[in-house]
Design a protein that fits this description.
223 residues, 4 helices, four-stranded mixed beta sheet, 2 domains, 11 strands, three-stranded antiparallel beta sheet
Length: 223
């Protein structure tokens, strides 16, 4: 593990009490690989995790990523790091990728997912119109940006251009990368946990819903 790193919600690699996800994301630049751990912690010199996943950064993944019915550190089967905005990215003035977003499992359509997701956590809504894991929402072009500062507008523009992919179950809709080791902090950018709370569900539109795929949890890995 890299020196001075930390698990999600912690200042070191020990999973904080009361935190369930405790993700650890590591980019190995020489190997050109992304390592993502779920529910990871350190005890002495040993590390344990409930899940470990490797992404090849030289590979052009197909529409079903690592394989249908295959999970990742995100319940939808996505690489988390690829969808997390970083403070350094936002500081450049341009964010060039989709974001991940989260809804309670009770608000997501049960038993299915859509590509580019390859898996679903525990969605439980019986409403056939509930959003499935993997659906892409895009912020409508007509949504006013007047209330947002310059850094917040960078994220708003990404939402309008690339949208957001439904990635996991939980109660915090948007999650951004830790800035502890970044050159720029979120505080310096004026981006906070409440920056986007004024956005409403009706401010978004669905982009290419895709064909629902029944969840079997029988992972078939791509080569």
């Amino acid at each position: 593990m890299p020196a001075n790193g930390n698990a999600e919600s912690s200042t070191n690699y020990v999973c904080a009490t009361g935190s369930n996800d405790c993700h650890i994301l590591v980019v190995e630049t020489e190997q050109k690989k992304l390592y993502e751990l779920y529910n990871a912690t350190q005890a002495g010199s040993a590390f344990t995790a409930l899940g470990g996943f490797i992404w090849d950064l030289t590979k052009q993944y197909p529409a079903n990523l690592r394989g249908d019915q295959c999970t990742s550190a995100d319940a939808a089967g996505f690489p988390i790091a690829a969808l997390l905005p970083t403070s350094d990215e936002v500081a450049t003035g341009t964010l060039r990728h989709a974001l991940r977003f989260i809804l309670p499992n009770a608000s997501m359509r049960a038993g299915v997912y859509v590509h580019p997701a390859t898996h679903a956590g525990g969605p439980s809504s019986a409403d056939p119109n509930a959003p499935p894991y993997g659906v892409r929402f895009r912020l409508k072009a007509s949504v006013s940006e007047a209330a947002f500062n310059a850094s917040e507008k960078v994220i708003i523009h990404a939402m309008k251009t690339y949208g957001m992919l439904l990635s996991d179950g939980g109660n915090i809709a948007l999650t951004f990368a830790d800035d502890r080791l970044s050159n720029t902090t979120w505080a310096a950018l004026g981006v906070t946990a409440s920056s986007f709370t004024s956005l409403a569900v009706t401010d978004f539109e669905v982009v290419a819903l895709g064909t629902p795929i029944a969840v079997t949890n029988i992972c078939v890995r791509n080569p």
